[in-house]
């Protein structure tokens, strides 16, 4: 994931900003509900997850799903899947596994949400075949999709199939720099019970708005291939613990890197820390030594 990449990560202030006041009120309204945590990577292919698959692995998704409980499914951004393909993915994964498919770029980037009802319905009809394994789909808007396009977004969300849980990621800086636009956007997604995506990446600290619109935190975390990546994850443990105490119901946390070298290793580190802090029992994914053999938990962390 190259979005927000910088050449000088050592100069970036990676501290997590204070929560927006709306976050606390949203979470307090959900207190008492069970908490669920899903931690995963963005892709399952060997080219990106180097040093993860044991030698001789033939089915990458099937193996990946033995180590993680979810996947941020970026493949659907480039090609809308057929119902048959979704069923194949469904059959390869265990009952607890969740998919988080991204809406196709034909809808978000080329059509820019205009005259997109038919392809959206076709996409939703297909991913509905994930059944109970559908975590949430998400819409990532182009960086040049600005507040001037608000009416297009409003119309699109009004027509979006209500049976499909949705999260939205806006990227243009004007959504965050102008309070009027930020409030209009927030009230729109909150009224539809749509989750506001947080992106933690070096070059776009404005996307750390810390403003949750539902009792779900959807975080796309991008490592900078720098030693500070681990400290950044430590700080997230503290914030997530705070949110859980305030009423957070669902955590969807996806770990990327600018250059995908350590995503499984970072994920293992983060999951073990989260388990300890929240007294969870999430599986800690195995990684490989340079000789292709699996590490133990103590070697990995």
UniProtKB/TrEMBL annotation:
Pfam families documented for this protein: DUF72 (PF01904)
Species: Pseudopedobacter saltans (strain ATCC 51119 / DSM 12145 / JCM 21818 / CCUG 39354 / LMG 10337 / NBRC 100064 / NCIMB 13643)
Organism taxonomic ancestry: Bacteria, Pseudomonadati, Bacteroidota, Sphingobacteriia, Sphingobacteriales
Protein name, entry field: DUF72 domain-containing protein
InterPro entries found in the cross-reference section: DUF72, UPF0759_sf
